[in-house]
Amino acid sequence: MYSKSEQTQISASRFLLPFEGKLSCENRWVMMADLIPRQELEDEYASLFSEEMGAPAKSFCMALGALIIKEKLEISDR
Prior knowledge:
Layout: H1 28-35, H2 38-46, H3 60-72
């Protein structure tokens, strides 16, 4: 089961860290996030799930982010 959230991702410049710092726009993860067409990909991702049946799926951004981090850092999913 997948239900789209209407939340939009905030930009790096508006994201506040707990110690009152800000994310750098030159951060490699921030730059990569700006390259991903999230809305189009989320529509396709959502179409793979039933709206009535099954356990709730993780959000598209979380699933894609976890996969990208795993691959970029060459770590196992074990």
